[in-house]
C-alpha cells in the first residue's frame, strides 16, 4: 500500500509489549513472519524487541535477529525498548531508528519494572541521551511514561506527578514523550483533563499515546487524544499484552480495532484492516494458549467494507 | 440515588432487546428482581417488554405482569415495544409511559422483523399514533428506526433512505425518533456523517441513539453522538442482546460500560456503576448459558473509583 498520505501513525507493539506478557516464547522465525505480515498490511512503525537480560525476559532474547530482519524493510521505522544504559548501548548498536526508555510515574511500578525510582530512571535517561548523542545522534529517543493514568500497585497517579515527570523527561533530552496507560486505568474524561494540562508543555514532543483496553476505554480514550492533536498510537495485534509488573492489566488496544476506528473517522493509516485480521492467525497458531482480544475479529468486517476516505473526504 | 441532576439518560433495554435474543425464558420473578436491582442502582428509564404474540417470542409472554411491577416505581419511566397496532392496544392498556414501534430502514430486515415493508410500517405507525391520541394521549410514541447504519441482510443502508424514513416517521406523528444500529455496523465516522445530516431535520425529536457493540464501536459511536447533542442512550446490562432477525448481530453496549464512560466525561447519569456490576449476577445465575459481555466486568472498577463529577466540574 502507498504510505505517502498518512494522517495517523499506528505503531505495532505486540512483538514487544504483547510477547513480553506471554509466558511462552515465540520462535524467531514466527516473529519474522509477523513482521512480514504487518508490513504487507501497510504497517510502517513497529516496536519489535526490548534489550533486557534474557534470564528476565527470555521472550526477547532474539532482539538483535528480530531487529535485523525488521531493518531489511527500508521504509519501516523500527523501535526497541531499553530499560537502562546497558540496554541502550545494545539497541543503538543494533541500528534501530528509535529507542524508548520506560519512565514510570508511579514509584511502586518503577521499582517493580526497572528497579529504580522515577528520579533515578530520569538520570539514567539523561545518560542514555548522552550516549545517543555521542554514538548515534540520528536515533530518536523516546521517554515512554508509564502508569500515567493510574497504577494497580499505587492506585491513583496525581496529575501533578505526571506533569513533573514530563518536564524532567523533556529536560533530560527526550525527543518524544509518549504517555502510556500501562494498567488500563484511563477514562476519556481523565484523558481530556490530562492532555489539556500536559500537551501545552510541549505540543510537538507530547505526540504519542499508548492505551490498554482493560476496561474497554481504549478507543474512547483514543477519540479524546485525537481531539487533542495526538497523531501516533501504539497497539497490539489481537490486543495481546499487559505488563508483567502491573497485576490485572490486560492487553493493549487491538491494532485492527484501532485502525478500523481511525479509518472510519477519515484518518488515513496506510493500513489494510482485512490483512491485519488475517495476520492474527500467526499468533493464534504459534501461541495457542495466549488470550486474544479485539471486537472486530468476532464479527469480521461489514460486508462491502471500504475505508471512509475511499467513500468521501475526511470528516475529522 | 437522587435523580434530580441528570445530564444523560441511560435506558436499560436488556429486559426487552436482551432477553428476546436469548432462547431461554427468564422467569417473571427474576425479571422483577432485575428491575429492582437496576432501580436501586439509580436507573430511571427501562424498556421492559414487548407486545408480540407469545408463540413468536415466549420470552415476552409476561409483558403485562413485568410492566405492572415496573410501574410500582413512581419515578421510573417504563417503555414497551410494539410491532403493530394490536400490540400498541395492549401496551397502551398496560399503562406504560412510552411505546416504541420499530421501523426498519432496510426493507429486508423490516420484512423479517415485522412482516411489513418500511412504508407499510410507517402507515401502521400512523394508526398507532391515532389510537394513542384517542385513548391515552399522555403516552409518548417513539419511532425506533432500526438498521439505520447497515444491515446484515441488505448490507449498506444509504443515508438517503434513512433520511426518508426519518421524515416520514416525523410526519406520521413520532414524538421521538430513535436511531438504532441494530446490527452493529455503525462506525464513529458514519455516526458523525449521519447525525450531521439527520439531526437538523428535528433536533428535539432525534434525541435517542441505540448502539450495539458487535465490532467494538459502541462507545466511540456514543462519543460522537454526544458531540451531536444526543442525551439518551439505550444499553443492556452485561451487553446481552442482538436481534433474532439480524444474523451475527451481537449484544447492545453494556449498560455498566456506558455509564462508566459517561460518568468519566462528567455527565451525570444518576446511576451507580458498582451496583450495576453487581446486578450482572442476576443474569449469570438465571441464564447460565447466555453470553455476557462488557469490559468493565473483566477488570472491575479501579481501586478508589469515584465518578468524575465527584472529583471536579464536568469537562464535556
Q: Counting H and I runs of at least 4 residues, what is the number of helices of chain A?
A: 12
Query: Rg of chain A, please?
Result: 18 Å
Number of strands of chain A: 8
What are the low-pLDDT stretches of chain A, counting only 5+ consecutive residues below 50?
none
Order of helices and strands of chain A: EHHEHEHEHHEHEHEHEHHH
Most extensive contact: A-B, 45 and 44 residues
Task: Tell me about the largest β-sheet of chain A.
Answer: 8 strands, parallel
Distance between the termini of chain A: 22 Å
Question: What is the multimeric organization of the chains shown?
Answer: homodimer
Helical fraction of chain A equals 25-40%
| Broad shape of chain A | globular
- Give me the CATH fold name of chain A: TIM Barrel
Spell out the CATH superfamily of chain A: Aldolase class I
Count of individual domains of chain A: 1
In CATH terms, what is the architecture of chain A?
Answer: Alpha-Beta Barrel
How much beta of chain A, percentage-wise? 5-15%
Q: Which sequence of strands runs across the widest sheet of chain A?
A: 1-8-7-6-5-4-3-2
